[in-house]
């Protein structure tokens, strides 16, 4: 029983360890899948934000471009007016053009800066679009996701298989435990049927030692000793029964021989009572045709002494 409990505990520990490892692998795969989805969502949000920033800056550039074009048109018109006007009357327009030149230069510088920044943002947006496309439609990401799902399904299948195997082991253990319990019950009933006597020395030793382990060993040794004695008694009984059977067989042969001798005696007596010579010759001829056990005529007194002695029945 102790060995069975140990085997059961070992199987349970191994199965639980395998289940925990499978659950840990499953949790790790689910964590990786969640991280991949989080990274994909962050990249999509970043791409949307960059696109919105690009649209906003494009609108600013369009506004500045329109303003620059209007200023350029006003400059061209001022030059034409200055050329058309006389020299004395063009001092006011020339002063206005001189005042507009720094503003135009500043606007041009700002437009150049915005165009350069816009170009940098466009390059960054292209990179983000490439990354987004890599996250969304890349074969590597799809293969990685498919691999993770396949591993997850495989892990579920292994868990189901291990669960069924654990149930089968549990059923087998129940069968073994039931068989051992029945055998233990039979031994206990047999031990209860045969009273045992324990000596004082054994009783003191059992009382001083462990009351569970040592007592079990003592009774187990007693049972083994009694089983050996029972086996020896069975062999002795079998031997005596064989001898008794042989005795009955020999007695049957002796009885048949006795009956044959009595029959022979009756026949010889009948032949002796007839008393005629011819009859005597016929009797001698008949006697010569039948095999006799003795060459001489058997003594009647000796034949009468042959009696059937029944065999004595054995107490076994």
UniProtKB/TrEMBL annotation:
Task: Name the coiled-coil region(s).
Answer: 26-74, 111-172
Keyword set, alphabetical order: Coiled coil
Amino acid composition bias (Polar residues), ranges on this chain: 277-286
Source species, domain of life:
Eukaryota
Which residue ranges are recorded for the region named Disordered? Answer: 273-301
Under what name is this protein listed? Answer: Uncharacterized protein
What is the organism field in this record?
Aphanomyces invadans
What lineage is on file?
Eukaryota, Sar, Stramenopiles, Oomycota, Saprolegniomycetes
